[in-house]
Amino acid sequence: MSCKEEFIEIFKANITRDGSEKLLDYLERKSDFFTAPASARYHGSYEGGLCEHSLNVYHCLVDYLQRERVQELYGLEYSKESVAIVSLLHDVCKVGCYKKGTRNVKDEKTGKWQQVPTYTFDDPLPYGHGEKSVYIVNGFLRLTREEAMAIRWHMGFSGTEDSRTIGQAFQKYPLAFALATADMEASYFLENETP
User: Fold this and answer.
1) What string of DSSP letters covers 38-62?
2) Domain of 71, in residue numbers
3) What does pTM read for this prediction?
4) Are 46 and 116 in contact (CB under 8 A)?
5) N-terminal to C-terminal alpha carbon distance within the chain
6) Contacts of 6 (CB under 8 A, 6+ apart)
7) 118 lies in a domain?
């Protein structure tokens, strides 16, 4: 099963809120969500990387929320729909932002320069990262406050915001902390290119 097929299967099985069909249609037919990279030079910097990253975050979040110690301490209960929404759609802000190009790289063995494919980032709607995803998703379906906060703060402490604000969001909305944890696990462990 391809990443796109798996994404659509998980989406359709779990996300049934009003507007979900229009959102999926937008992702499939009116955006580059399934072909875009997840980044220009880091994790998932290849065609289809955004969809693959979204699936990795979904699986990491499901695993995190099922951990015995997490359940023992916090007893977090979220619907399958909320989990699917925040994980699969947290980076929808990256749609339409990456442009294909090339750059020159020196071959270490031959010493010769060669062109390699690359992506450049050009955001047509510079609205912020997490808040832009919330804005886009809310244009199709209504997010709960905790879902919106989870998507908004999924970058955690790696963003440029005041760390006190991030800490307050994590304290008030545990799903935000769980999603940020899943996003980092997917980015730095599952998708890291260096051993």
Assistant:
1) S-SSSTT-STTHHHHHHHHHHHHHH
2) 3-96+131-190
3) 0.90
4) no
5) 26
6) 55
7) no
